[in-house]
Specification:
Helix content: 25-40%
CATH superfamily: P-loop containing nucleotide triphosphate hydrolases
CATH architecture: 3-Layer(aba) Sandwich
Mean pLDDT: 91
Bound molecules: adenosine-5'-triphosphate
Largest sheet: 6 strands, mixed
Strand order of the largest sheet: 6-7-8-3-9-10
Structural class: alpha/beta
CATH class: Alpha Beta
Number of strands: 10
Strand content: 15-25%
Shape: globular
Number of helices: 8
CATH topology: Rossmann fold
Number of domains: 1
């Protein structure tokens, strides 16, 4: 299937490139450095998990990568577009068209059907992808027989699959997931993680996921650890045991 712009088809351009990103909230005595000079590339078509103790900067990292928060200094490139210099209107368009969000709490619209929820970003004006893409997404998340249902008629795992399909519908540069299995039981949570893995492997999407759970993080290609706002190492092809061991070394989770 075609991509939307030539720059985004270049494998050499990472999905997200953060360079010396610092985020300071407040000022003077009350200043809190939430991110402290973070430099990282998220490879296109990769699955990256972000872990770290409470307050280490995970949400701030995700928000800066998504253009939801502006860094105090440093640069964030999304598929080759510098976010820090965009005005609010263009930033909103980038978030709508090129980033998919998946939250712990699903955030579906109760009065809309599954199909309308999935297509919501397109109804709100996002550029239409290749016509073959939406049916492909619906099929991939296994919801073809639920399209006329309302969210309340679905299980938690099915609702999260609707949210994942909605995040994918614009064929974004990156899907950002904030504790996507936090509200699910372990079996349903595994199904959602398998789906995220399948989306990366089968459609070449890029996923960035914040999680506290070593098992969830083990579905990623790499785990990056944050501590006090800075990168504190990474693990490639991580096993749950290796992740848990790293967490135990720091003993502050
Ligand atoms: N809007 C804000 N104003 C002031 N301080 C903030 C704000 N947002 C975050 N912080 C501070 O920045 C630091 C990093 O917060 P962040 O939410 O990114 O951490 P986290 O790793 O996601 O934590 P948790 O796992 O508890 O969700 C914390 O010290 C937090 O108190």
């Amino acid at each position: 299937m075609e991509t939307k712009a030539p720059e985004r088809a270049t494998a050499a351009v990472p999905a997200v490139r953060m360079s010396s990103v610092t985020k300071v909230y407040g000022s003077g005595d009350r200043a809190v450095t939430a991110l402290d000079g973070v430099t990282i590339d998220l490879p296109r078509g990769g699955f990256t998990a972000v872990m770290g103790p409470s307050g280490s900067g995970k949400s701030t990292f995700l928000h800066c990568a998504a253009g939801l928060d502006r860094p105090t200094s440093g640069s964030v490139l999304l598929g080759g577009t510098e976010l820090s210099t965009l005005d609010e209107k263009r930033l909103t368009a980038v978030r709508r068209d090129r980033i998919g969000f998946v939250f712990q709490a699903y955030n579906l619209v109760p009065s809309l059907t599954v199909e309308q929820n999935i297509r919501l970003p397109l109804l709100l004006g996002a550029g239409a992808p290749d016509p073959a893409w939406p049916p492909h997404v619906v099929e991939r998340v296994g919801l073809a027989d639920r399209l006329g249902h309302r969210p309340a008629q679905l299980s938690g795992g099915q609702q999260q699959r609707v949210a994942i399909a909605r995040a994918l519908i614009t064929r974004p540069d990156v899907v950002l997931a904030d504790e996507p299995t936090g509200a699910l039981d372990s079996r349903t949570g595994r199904q959602v993680l398998e789906l995220l893995r399948d989306i990366v492997d089968g459609t070449g999407q890029t996923v960035l996921m914040v999680t506290h759970d070593p098992l969830a993080a083990s579905y990623a290609d790499q785990v990056v650890f944050l501590r006090d706002g800075g990168l504190a190492g990474s693990l490639a092809d991580p096993s749950p045991e290796a992740i848990a061991e790293r967490m135990a070394q720091w003993g502050e989770w």
